[in-house]
Design a protein that fits this description.
The complex is a heterodimer of chains A (248) and B (245).
Chain A lengths: L11 E12 L2 E12 L3 E5 L6 H9 L6 E6 L2 E2 L9 E4 L11 H11 L4 H10 L15 H13 L5 E5 L7 H16 L3 E6 L10 E6 L2 E6 L1 H8 L4 H15 L1
Parallel strand pairs in A: 3-8, 3-9, 6-7, 7-8
Antiparallel strand pairs in A: 1-2, 1-4, 4-5, 9-10
Chain B lengths: L2 H17 L1 H21 L4 H33 L2 H6 L5 H29 L9 H22 L6 H11 L1 H6 L11 H9 L1 H14 L5 H23 L7
Classes of the chains: A alpha/beta (248), B mainly alpha (245).
Chain lengths: 248, 245
């Protein structure tokens, strides 16, 4: 695959080839492949249990894989140089409940050589400025998620991988977050966002539809609607599943 | 391994610890209270207290480090923060080093308070210098930390982690010579005792107890505990997996 073949072909940030993952002896990902372009927002959609988190963990390099390759920014996933360039926001907020919001963000910032001012800026960016001194354990679910997100934003990653970051969030904040994701992508950050909410799919530049460990679609939202002849993405997803079931 | 990240990690762990005032008070006060209790129990036998009180000065930091390390690391594992840290520039040894420094500070504070009370108010006497007792206590506490780190990999809940105490800590307490002289135990049990690192911490303390000068035997015993701490740290660090199922 020629990188940067033409000016119109953006560089590939994430390349996955024939990835197979088994967990507890069961196949979770059954040979999936895709290319994710730099500076885009890619949505990873699928029902819970379809393998979204496993796919994400393979990209950040915390998942044991059975076979296949995962390359991020041209290097094997999870290798040392990538740990400064790739940020991961887990599904359950991975923050320290016995530290304040500010102490949490400042800690992750410090690991990357960033200071308190940058930590406060990241806290403001997720709308947690008024809660900076509260203990993380006392926060609501959505506030924890936003704190966890701030811990990732503070490091200015080139690749930002988010596992269901908008679950349980206020619609206004959700809207703001999606605006922020696009702002980051416009600055060149590559984002991979998983969701099981179809109404978020339209906000992505490209969609990966995962079902039972396989991609059943890897396309832009517009092309997906056009190719399935449906008006919305929920219907498109259903259409694809029925097609597959008929084929079987 | 990065010294900067190790210290940042230690700072974070200390901040967590200091945020929990009740735990801080328990860590600092309980060993002193227990040693005072032993001193009162052995009121008529100051010689016995000299031996038992001294051993407890090293045993408490060992036990405390085992407990708080196994529980806090279990929280890192189950709370998702360990997985997150493994995607950051934090190395496994940075994390282990951060724990060693942070909890080492806690163990040192605990030991200084308990030793000061034992020496100044409870009449504890050793032929050798108090700094040697302090050194042995710190090395024993680091072994406790390493053991706690290792054990945290085999517990899935805090309840289980607590249950590991009777398995890993109590036998060392029973067999180290504290409750019964080692040479009067069944022969095979003496062999088991010889294999337990805390035994050597107690032997080192005995050297300090009876010799004005630091003996080479004490250094050998201290080195054995230190080596056990290093081995347990290596085993514990090996349980910190970057990639998991």
């Amino acid at each position: 695959m020629p990188p940067n073949a033409t000016a119109n072909t953006p560089a590939t940030a994430i390349a996955v080839d024939d990835l197979v993952v088994h967990r507890g002896g069961r196949p979770v990902l059954k040979s999936v492949s895709t290319r994710i372009a730099a500076g885009t927002v890619t949505g990873l959609l699928g029902p819970s249990g379809s393998g979204k988190t496993t796919f994400i963990r393979a990209i950040v390099g915390t998942q044991q894989v059975k076979s296949g390759t995962v390359e991020v920014l041209g290097r094997p996933a999870g290798t040392k140089p990538l740990r400064r360039r790739v940020a991961y926001v887990t599904q359950d907020a991975s923050i320290y409940p016995d530290l304040s919001v500010k102490a949490n963000v400042a800690y992750f910032a410090a690991l990357y050589g960033k200071g308190r001012a940058e930590a406060m800026a990241a806290i403001e960016r997720v709308g947690m400025g008024d809660h900076a001194h509260r203990l993380a354990a006392k926060l609501s679910g959505g506030q924890k998620t936003r704190t966890s997100l701030a811990c990732a934003l503070v490091i200015d990653p080139e690749v930002l991988v988010l596992d269901e970051p908008t679950v349980g969030l206020d619609p206004v904040i959700r809207e703001e977050l999606w605006d922020r994701f696009h702002a980051l992508a416009n600055q060149g950050t590559t984002l991979l966002v998983s969701s099981h909410v179809m109404d978020e799919a339209d906000r992505c530049d490209r969609l990966l539809l995962l079902r039972e460990g396989r991609f059943i679609a890897d396309d832009t939202p517009a092309d997906l609607r056009a190719s399935t002849g449906t008006a919305n993405l929920e219907a498109a997803f259903l259409h694809l599943i029925r097609e597959l079931e008929k084929a079987n | 391994m990065s010294l900067r990240i190790t210290f940042i990690t230690a700072g974070r762990i200390l901040r967590q610890l200091l945020g929990d005032r009740r735990t801080v008070v328990l860590i600092l006060a309980v060993p002193s209270l227990m040693i005072a209790l032993i001193s009162a129990i052995m009121d008529a036998a100051p010689e016995a207290f000299n031996s038992v009180g001294l051993i407890l000065l090293a045993f408490f930091p060992f036990m405390m480090m085992f407990m708080i390390t196994s529980i806090t690391l279990l929280r890192e594992r189950t709370g998702g923060t360990l997985e997150r840290l493994m995607t950051t520039p934090t190395g496994k040894l940075d994390l282990v080093g951060g724990y060693a420094i942070a909890f080492g500070v806690a163990a040192a504070s605990q030991t200084v308070i308990a030793a000061a009370i034992a020496y100044l108010f409870l009449g504890l006497e050793t032929a050798g210098p108090a700094w040697a007792v302090f050194l042995i206590a710190i090395i024993a506490s680091l072994f406790g930390m390493a053991l706690g780190l290792f054990v945290s990999a085999f517990a899935t809940t805090e309840f289980q982690a607590i249950q590991f105490m009777p398995v890993f800590v109590v036998p060392q307490l029973l067999l180290c010579g504290l409750i019964w002289p080692r040479d009067q135990m069944a022969g095979w049990l003496q062999g088991v005792s010889d294999a337990l690192p805390v035994t050597y911490a107690v032997k080192a303390l005995n050297e300090v107890q009876f010799n004005t000068e630091i003996t080479s035997e004490m250094w050998v015993d201290v080195a054995i505990v230190a080596a056990a701490a290093l081995v347990a740290t290596a085993l514990g660090a090996a349980t910190l997996r970057r990639r998991t199922d």
